[in-house]
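ingest -> validate -> predict -> emit
validate: passed (alphabet ok, no gaps, 184 aa)
predict: started
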Amino acid sequence: MSKEHRPLLMRANRMLGVQLVEHNLVKIEDLEAANEKLIELVAGEQPRQSTILGILAYDMKVLKEDDVLHHIVESEGVGLVDLRDYEVPDELKKDLDVGACWATWSVPFDREEDFTFIATAYYLSPAVRMHWEKLLGTPVLWFGATLEGIAGYLEKYVIAHAGAAPLVAAGAPPAGAPATPATK
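emit:
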C-alpha cells in the first residue's frame, strides 16, 4: 500500500468499524482486537489482507460478511452486484486507481448517463462514500459486493494491466478467507 493511500485505508477501516459497532453487527471489544491486527497487516504491505471486515469475518469469525450485506440491503436500500462475469467499460478501466480501490474495497464498474456505479464491500464507511463521490464528481449508485468479489476483480485488472503487478504478489486472501484464482 502506497503512503499516498494509507491514510484513506485507515480512515475507511476506522469508519467502517465504528458503523459495524453502531449497527450492532460487532462488539467494541472485537473491533479493538481487529484494529490491532489491521495495524500489523498494513505495516506488512498486504493490501488484500488490510481489511477490518476481513479480519472480523474470516480471522476472528465474530461477524459474517453476509450479515453486513443483508444489513445494507435491508437498512440502506443498496443493491448487490457480482463482478465475476461483469464486463466493465474500458473508460472506467483506463484511469482506475488500484491503490484507492484496495484502500476502500470499492470498484467503479459501470456508467449510465450521469451516474457512476460502484461496487463496494465498505458501503457502511462514510469515508469510502465521500472519497469516491468527491473523486468522480458524478452522482454515484452504490452496490454491495463481497471482499472476494472486489479482490478478484482487482487481481484480474492488475494482471491485464501489468503496471501494478506487485499488488498481486502481495494479494493473499483476506485473513482466513478462501483464495480465488486470479484468472478464470
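Residues 164-176, 178-184 have pLDDT under 50 and may be disordered.
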